Amino acid sequence: TYQLGGARLEGGKNVVQDSRLHYLGHNDERFCRDVEDVINGAIRQGREQRTRAANATYYHVSSERMVLDFGNINVIFRFLQLLCEGHHFGLQQYLREQYDNLKSVNIVKAVSLFFCELLSTPAILDSPDNIALLLQTLALLTEMCQGPCRGNQDIIVNLGVCAVLNAFLTNPAYAVPLNALAEEDESALSRLEIKQNAVTLLLALLE
Questions:
Q1: What is the CA radius of gyration of the chain?
Q2: Among positive and negative, which fits the CA dihedral 178, 134, 113, 103?
Q3: Could you count the other beta carbons within 10 Å of the beta carbon of residue 49?
Q4: Which is higher by pLDDT, 199 or 28?
Q5: What is each CA distance from 16 to 52, 93, 195, in whole angstroms?
Q6: Across residues 85-94, what is the average pLDDT?
């Protein structure tokens, strides 16, 4: 369903975005709550992984290479990104607050918390799937606040996303040596791409 919806939204089709906003505002009370449930489940999984890694370090036992399975959350995040693409203010706002629903949920807050958890997870860059999810989450947060959308910017900043980004960008463990780029080191190129996307998000937050 998310893939089909994303295919219709590819390229920032404003008419499709408008129709989706109208549908959500008049017919669908479950969408945002379902998305929040998926994200909250992923946050719990990330925290459990961090706890296991910390315990393994404390007790000096070996821990297996981190394997995180967040299901189809990457597809969901891509769909949400396409909803907001082109600075669609109505949908940016709707993901933060649904005035038409009996219970409003803050998807911007949930994604921000998930991002902070994801980037704080040990060895997050060990897996290509995790790197892809990290890049997708950065792209989603950027689309949520570009325009600018002040309300979403405030949520993202106040939840500590900038501090997490700063810690990542200044961490020597994630430094990208120039010779690694010349040699087309895949790991170094991935770190560089993440840093470029992180800077793009920071610039969007400054709009």
A1: 18
A2: positive
A3: 19
A4: 199
A5: 44, 17, 32
A6: 93
